[in-house]
């Protein structure tokens, strides 16, 4: 295995130390929770997290204007309820705490348990579950992927405005049905803690509908040009979306350079133009990754002026 | 070749369109020059560029507080003098234009010719040459690599302060001898326009002292743990540096995820502590890449309070 690893059992701990060294507004508590140093403002606190391996998600979004704490499990492994509880307690305010959870069985269960433990300590807490990945037909089982980053920013914006816990939750819940993502990979990720690839692809194959934990996709195809790949992903998204104006994210899976993501964005815009769709805002970069996977996802969020205002608002994260 | 490419002869043009779609403060002129829309301020204008493939360098640093134009050649290919001239003319002010050139024969020659052509049009223009890569012993032949991004920001800061062309040049020239970089790769880059790797490495080998154009390094070693790799690179850097306080960049080569770069940063900090060196500022991310190369470089800039102020100052680039 060729990865930049020292002791693979310490990979996440080492990474969190490194991320925190590079951002003096952060600190690590309870070994695996990144929190803002200037927390405890008089506003709804936002906690997210999940398995590691998706950097900059979620630790990189712990910032004024986004989330207040990120609970970081081992690579592709849900954090335990006690760690989530530590995060909640560290940032809880009288306004309450909103948990932003990606829809994976382990995450949902552990955040739920942490919520119950928090309530026993008289902390006001609620949650939203992000499930934007359309690769899975059954809506109950859809995974939370890149759209989660939009949720961090939009929730962060409303929390900063002083909205109540129920109001912030309602704002996020209005976003969720209007946000859809699908991804693809040219190469699987190599998991540094195991030395294994998530799946294997031939030299001329690509995988459509991958997850962000090295999960295989929904089908495999011979490699195509970018315009063809974009059309393929958009065809899936068009089964789900409503309207003709969208906020768009072209998200890199971690191992794909910005140059290639920009090429994707250029052909996605061409596709939009051909279909008379409007791209009101475009994000291109590594927002929610799967270690060093080569590939990208497209997220479409139905346009709303308020969402643009939220996404344009200043946040202190250098990753958004 | 598995790369996100449509027509490989259009790779750079497609990429520039995509980058510009994602940043509405930019526009593309003369097919390959990225310029600020709100240019022509009453300050020294800064122009940089070179071959493409180093994204976000240089196009992503075209922003208030950094550079005013980036001339983007084909992948790993110097831009031609006429394109550089277009960039100069587009941003030139009465205060003059400073060219920030990386030390490669083609770049130096073409920027020099463009400078002569500009002078014939009565544009006041000067240049600085960045040569921070210590992998090459001969100082005349040292390449400009990741440190160039620090130069963009520091020069941008002084230009914004209203310093004259000669003053900005002098500030940058004071930085250059105090900035040193060395890089390594786990995997070479795949050049999307040729389908070729820059070099080949065995499954258990790494390359030390690589360039940012797929150039081979100065030597090859069996893969090591991060602390060993960091010690190896620092041993080279310590032959060059003076002092004990440094501004540090851990720069990803494009295909290495943020998680691994953060692990590098953590062990670099440990090395600094062991050697009683001080890290006064730390940058971790993809700043000056070589397409999808897996690896990183370390840049050390001798500490100066003014440089920290410059690097901390607000810039509108989302990549710095």
From TrEMBL, chains A, B:
It comes from the Bacteria. One of its GO terms (biological process) is glycerol catabolic process. Pfam families: Dak1. Residues 7-320 form the DhaK domain. One of its GO terms (molecular function) is phosphoenolpyruvate-glycerone phosphotransferase activity. PANTHER family: TRIOKINASE/FMN CYCLASE (PTHR28629), TRIOKINASE_FMN CYCLASE (PTHR28629:SF4). This is Dihydroxyacetone kinase subunit DhaK. It comes from Macrococcus bovicus.
């Amino acid at each position: 295995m060729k990865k930049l690893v020292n002791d693979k059992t310490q990979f996440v701990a080492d990474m969190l130390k490194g991320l925190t060294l590079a951002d003096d507004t952060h600190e690590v508590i309870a070994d695996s929770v990144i929190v803002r140093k200037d927390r405890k403002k008089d506003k709804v606190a936002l906690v997210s997290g999940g398995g590691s391996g998706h950097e900059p998600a979620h630790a990189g979004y712990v910032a004024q204007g986004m989330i207040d704490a990120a609970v970081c499990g081992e690579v592709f492994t849900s954090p335990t309820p006690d760690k989530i509880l530590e995060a909640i307690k560290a940032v809880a305010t009288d306004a309450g705490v909103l948990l932003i959870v990606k829809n994976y069985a382990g995450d949902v269960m552990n955040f739920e348990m942490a919520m119950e433990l928090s309530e026993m300590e008289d902390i006001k807490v609620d949650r939203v579950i992000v499930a934007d990945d359309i690769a899975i037909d059954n809506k109950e089982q859809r995974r939370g992927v890149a759209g989660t980053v939009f949720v961090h920013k939009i929730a962060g914006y409303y929390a900063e405005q002083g909205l109540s816990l129920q109001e912030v939750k309602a704002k996020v819940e209005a976003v969720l049905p209007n946000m859809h993502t699908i991804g693809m990979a040219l190469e699987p990720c190599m998991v540094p803690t195991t030395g294994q690839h998530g799946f294997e692809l031939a030299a001329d194959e690509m995988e459509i509908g991958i997850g962000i934990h090295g999960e295989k996709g929904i089908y495999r195809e011979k490699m195509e040009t970018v315009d063809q790949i974009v059309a393929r992903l958009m065809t899936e998204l068009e089964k789900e979306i409503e309207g003709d104006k969208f906020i768009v994210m072209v998200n890199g899976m971690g191992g794909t350079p910005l140059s290639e993501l920009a090429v994707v964005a250029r052909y996605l815009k061409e596709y939009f133009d051909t279909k008379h769709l409007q791209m009101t805002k475009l994000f291109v970069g590594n927002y929610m990754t799967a270690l060093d996977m080569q590939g990208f996802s497209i997220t479409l969020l139905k346009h709303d002026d308020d969402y643009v205002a939220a996404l344009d608002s200043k946040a202190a994260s250098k990753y958004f």
